[in-house]
Every structure is written in structure tokens, then in C-alpha cells.
Amino acid sequence: MLNPERLPCILHGTVKSTPRTGVVSAGSQMRLFSGKVLLLTVSLFALAACGDAPGGAPQAKEILRGAQAEDADFAVVPVTRATLPQLSKWPQSSSQPVSGWLEKSSGPASQIIQAGDMLDLSIWDNGESSLLAQKGQKAVELRSIRVSSAGDVFLPYVDQVYVAKMTPDAARETIQKRFAEISTTAQVQLNHQPGRESSVDLISGVSKPGNFPLPDRNVSVLSLIALGGGVEAHLTNPQVRLMRGSKLYGISLDRLLKSPALDTTLRGGDKVYVESDERYFLSLGAASKEAQIPFPDDQVTALDAASLIGGFADNRANPKGVLVLRNYDGSDVRSDGTGPSKERTIFSFDLTSADGLFSAGEFQIANKDLVLVTESSVVQNGTVISVMYDALGIGLRARSLRN
């Protein structure tokens, strides 16, 4: 058996042998050197078999080691045509703090008076003994009358008049009827200026954010974004967010544009903003690009992910050992097959087969998944051979110097 302590001596050709008398022939010297080379080759391959050669990425067997043990804290699931139907029933992991989205509900093309709105009144009265207008004056102007939190306004001679939740035309008729009680010839003109409760805020993600009054009750999210100058071009897979009360709703701009029925009608007090998709997955191992990759679309399959990372390193990657590592919530774990059996789950792909490629094109990548391209075992053997040739080169140079 090879003594490791003598390996450096073999490399440098300094192994001592039993002294011999006489001159050693050139053939004997060559046979001695060939024996050293053979011994070196066997030794290096023995070392490769006993341990792992240095590499840039792990092998699949290293990652999956111990998966079959009873106390394994992770599960391995091959992704094939046979397993895809079951996997489609598993809970979809999501860290998005949104409550779905609201469908469009058309409203009348008129405004509604809300608390905080401002009213301007012009009261015309041609009566000879009018209480409202002075002699020779045909109209009285009442400006900037704020609607109270209770929904009413105070007007001279008629006291409180409730106008909240009325259209401007309905409020004008109500006020005119109240003034007609003291002057039958009185006529009212009303101008409505929406306040905070009759406007919406477009916060960010557009060219011109700001506060926008609602001209009617039929203003949609896309109409508001258009008023704000459109979505900023640098956003990745833009996501539209709607804050209404204590809830946050969300949808992608792409889906909103393709589904007119989802172009939600806004209410006074709504807040809208547009942001980049916050989801991402990680790429590591023998991939062409190791990085944090943002989601460019609503859905990214494993095959999409392979393309987004620039494919695999041709001289290193093992296409039979592409892994997707995912962390599930404890509440997602199931024992009946309708969910993962472990919180930590590894999905494995063989991209050298048609079934593996088609299945990868149907498997959805989740937020914060790790796509790991394992390294081929051939790479380690290549590393060993490279070391062997380096050693041979050192030996040949040393022998040349001695001669």
C-alpha cells in the first residue's frame, strides 16, 4: 500500500532504492521512471476515490445524501409527467401581503358629495321683499361652504341641510326647496369642489404622482394611471397596488391590461401605487450566471429559470442533476400527498430527457426558490487528471535538469 508520506519523494524522483553496483542502463532508468508514473497515477485515482476533488459546485449525490434516512429533515421529489398532477395540488407558497384583486363595478357618471367637500352657492331671488339679497341685488354668493363630518352644511335662514351622498344636482334641488320656504322666487346654482374623500392618491411608480379629484364614480385604476402619465419604464414586471381602508389589493399591470373586467372602479380615499415585482429566485452552482434573478413575468417555470440564468456551464454542469430547493410553511406540510411531506423540499429534474424538459416547462418556480445546477462527476475526474499531468510535468522537468 502507498505510504502518503513518500508521495512527495515519488513526485521529485528521490525514492531511495537498494544500492546497486555498476552503471544503470538507459533502459533501466526508463523502466524505473515509468514505474514511478504508474505508481503516481494509481495513487491519484485512489485519492479521488476516497475523497472529493476541489470543484466550483456540489454534485447531486452530495446534496441528496441522507434523503432516504428515516430522520431526514428534507424530502426529494422528482419532477416528471407522473408527478406533475399531484404537485399541481400542492399549496402555492407566497409572501405577498395582498388580498387578491377587485373586479370592475361600473358606477354612474356623476359625482357624490362627501364630508370635506366644498360647495359654492349662488342664490338668485327677484322678490320685492327678499330676505336674501339687498335692494338692487339679484344674487347672493356663498363661497367655500365645507360639508361637515356629519354630511351637512349650514345656510343662512334655512339652518342645516344634509347633502352628503347626494349628486351635485340632487343637492342643488334640496337646497333650493329649503330656500323656497322663505322666498318662493329663490333659485340656486351649485358648484361642487371634491375634497379628500372625493379624490384618490396616485403615490408612486408613475411619471406624475399626485392627488386626483374623481370627476365621476366611474374612474378606473387604468384611467388614474393614465392621468399620472403612465407607468415608469424601469419597473420590472410592474405590480399595481390598491390600498382601500385596511386592505391591500394587488395585481400585475400585464394581467390588468389583458383583463378589462379587472379594471377596478375607484372610490374616494383610495390610494394607488405601482412597484416592481419583489419576487426573485436564486441561481447557484454550475450555472452560467450565479445571481438573484427577479421575476420578469407573473409565472416563471423551471425551464424559464434555466433560460434566465443563461443556461448551464457546458464544461461543468450535470443536466441530469438540476435541483430546485424550496422552503414551505409548516402549515403546508401534508401526509396525504396533497402537499409536501417536509418543510424543506428538493425538486429534481433530468433535463437530458424529453419528459424532463416538458415537465420543467410546466413546473412553477416560487418566490425565493434556489435553482441549483449541480456539477458533473466528470469534472472531478478531469481535476484528478489535470493534477496528474501537472505532477508528470514536474517530474519530467526535474529529470531533465539532473541530466
- CATH topology heading of the largest domain: Outer membrane lipoprotein wza fold like
Which CATH architecture of the largest domain is right? Roll
**How many domains, in number, for the residues?**
4
Number of helices: 10
Based on DSSP secondary structure assignment, what is the total number of beta strands? 16
Round the mean pLDDT to the nearest integer and report it.
83
In which order are the strands of the major sheet placed?
Answer: 1-15-14-16-12-13
Helicity level: 25-40%
The geometry reads as: rod-shaped
- Low-confidence segments, ≥5 residues, pLDDT <50? 1-18
Tell me about the biggest sheet? 6 strands, mixed
Radius of gyration equals 39 Å
Q: DSSP strand (E) fraction?
A: 15-25%
What is the CATH superfamily classification of the largest domain? Outer membrane lipoprotein wza domain like
> Helices and strands: which structural class?
alpha+beta
Order of helices and strands: HHHEHEEEEHEEEHEEHEEEHEEHEH
N-to-C terminal Cα separation, in Å?
31 Å
Highest-level CATH class of the largest domain: Alpha Beta
Q: Could you explain how this protein is built, in words?
A:
It is a single chain. By secondary structure, this protein is of the alpha+beta class. Helix 2 runs antiparallel to helix 10 (377-402). It has helices at residues 7-11, 26-50, 60-64, 84-87, 168-180, 221-227, 253-258, 302-308, 354-360, 377-402, and strands at residues 74-78, 118-124, 139-146, 152-155, 159-162, 187-193, 199-202, 210-213, 239-244, 247-252, 271-275, 280-285, 291-294, 317-327, 344-349, 370-375. It folds into four domains: 4-54 and 381-402, no CATH class; 60-92 and 279-375, Roll (Outer membrane lipoprotein wza fold like), CATH 3.10.560.10; 118-193, wza like domain (wza like fold, 2-Layer Sandwich), CATH 3.30.1950; 200-275, Outer membrane lipoprotein wza fold like. 26% of the residues lie in helices and 23% in strands. The chain is rod-shaped. The longest helix has 26 residues, at 377-402. Strands 1-15-14-16-12-13 form a six-stranded mixed sheet.
